[in-house]
Amino acid sequence: MLLSRQLICKNALSKGYPGEFVASYSSLAKPERAAQKSFREVLQTQLNDIEKAGTYKKERIIVSPQATAISVDGSEGKILNFCANNYLGLASNDDVVNFSKKALDEYGAGLSSVRFICGTQNIHKQLEAKLSAFHQREDTILYASCFDANAGIFEAVLSPEDAVFSDELNHASIIDGIRLCKAKKDRYLHRDMKEKLKSSDARIKMIVTDGVFSMDGNVAPLPEIFQLADKYNALTFVDDCHATGFFGPSGRGTEEFYGMWGRCDIINSTLGKALGGAAGGYTTGPKELIDLLRQRSRPYLFSNSLPPPVVASGMRVIEMLMESNQLTARVQSNTRRFRTAMTKAGFTISGMDHPISPVMLGDARLASVFADEMLKRGIYVIGFSYPVVPKGKARIRVQLSAAHTDEEIDRAVSAFIEVGKQLSVIP
Asked: Helix, strand or coil for residue 126?
């Protein structure tokens, strides 16, 4: 086995680092210790097992801005992208990018600080105010990501006297966040928490659910959840990352989809999908909750502030959404076009009229091969398999964007039909 430093030098040379730098670094190489060698072997065994199972995830390299048509390393010409969370097509929108550039010039690249020391600029407060107005909530707190928002809320708010009821298919960030708190934890069967609520005598009862489940595209039954919350005196928490900005008539998310805007007690969501596509997450809800999170939430207290250009891009997208629902309407019509055509062709499409439109295949290796064949035809999609989804539930998760044209959607459907027949997925 090559020495670890030799491996580093070999990789450095392949990346074009100066030879003299690599040579000087190589001279410092030391024999690999027994513990290091054993560690490598343990890791490589696990990697080999993943490859044998057909679930090894290879990262394709994009060499262009995120958009519906992208350049992919190793592929000729533009590739149509149908697997980004870029639901409104604003990740490289000129207006959003220019607004972000202006903030870069005015406020700098970053704050080098957490919020409570010297990391709060006026634009952070402005974005929090805009998000509160957009959701019609009392206050909002920004995080580096929605993963951090989910990691930071339950531990800060819930005690051993309390109970949290979490859908079994909730996002990994919710699962990890709940693990950190000391409340009683109950995981309920997907979309069914009635019996667990009925038997609880906790001080605070919190029902926690994704608004839209990201692997399946199905929507939480909020009317039933709100009804049970009223009956058993519980709070409701919704992670609306795959709904904010584009789901519901004006993009206000899952609540609005059901005609119940303003009913949820706490919403966590992201700036990293429809709202600019960069980074950042937030919690919006009662003022007292937000005040407490600023005092106790560890990811907020110990993470750098969001960079000004990211804050600015989020602000601009919120402004655009409050001015018009045109993009929201477009992504919804694109979704109907794709789902209708694919179902007619004989594919099984999971979910509930959501831009997440999983093409169900079942077999992990088949999903991987299917995605590779689609790339050969100029369509960028990814196969999802265990552990991202349950075993036997592998799929191609297609995601529609407001920026997709009718012609692009029809071209993707044609490619699906061609590959589906080639691999005997459809007759």
From this structure: helix
The pair of structure tokens assigned to 299 is 């990811």
In whole angstroms, give the CA distance from residue 184 to residue 389. Answer: 26
Q: What pTM, to 2 d.p., does this model score? A: 0.89
Q: Are strands 383-384 and 163-167 parallel, antiparallel or unpaired?
A: unpaired
Position 352 pLDDT exceeds 60: yes
What's the gap between Cα 146 and its chain centre?
Answer: 8
Alpha carbon distances (Å) from 193 to 172, 187, 196, 209 = 19, 8, 6, 11
Q: 70-123, pLDDT tens digit by residue? A: 998 888 889 999 999 999 999 999 999 999 999 999 999 999 999 999 999 999
DSSP string, 60-115: P-B-S-SSSEE-BTT--S-EEE-S-S-TTS-TT-HHHHHHHHHHHHHH-S--SS-H
CB contact set of 38 (below 8 Å; sequence gap of 6+): none
What is the structure's pLDDT at 2?
A: 47
CA distance 388 to 391: 9
Tokens of 310: 């990211």
Per-residue pLDDT averaged across 335-344, rounded?
Answer: 98
The phi, psi pair for 8, rounded to 5°, reads -60, -45
Report the C-alpha gap between 206 and 197 in whole angstroms: 9
pLDDT digits (tens, 9 = 90+) for 251-310: 999 999 999 999 999 999 999 999 999 999 999 999 999 999 999 999 999 999 999 999
Q: Report yes or no: 271 and 141 within 8 Å, Cβ to Cβ.
A: no
CA distances from 88 to 54, 115, 276, 418 (A): 33, 29, 8, 28
Catalytic residues: 214, 242, 273
pLDDT 10s digits, 355-365:
999 999 999 99
Mean pLDDT of 35-42: 94
Q: Residue-wise over 410-426: b if at least 16 C-beta within 10 A, else e?
A: ebbbebbbebbeeeebe
C-alpha to C-alpha distance for 350 and 126, rounded to whole angstroms: 38
Q: Which two tokens stand for residue 237?
A: 């928490």
Residue 29's pLDDT is: 60
| Dihedral sign (CA 223, 224, 229, 235) | negative
Question: What are the DSSP calls for 311-377, one per residue?
Answer: HHHHHHHHHHHHH--HHHHHHHHHHHHHHHHHHHHT--B-SSS-SEEEEEEE-HHHHHHHHHHHHHT
The residues near 213 (Cβ < 8 Å, ≥ 6 apart) are 167, 169, 170, 219, 220, 242
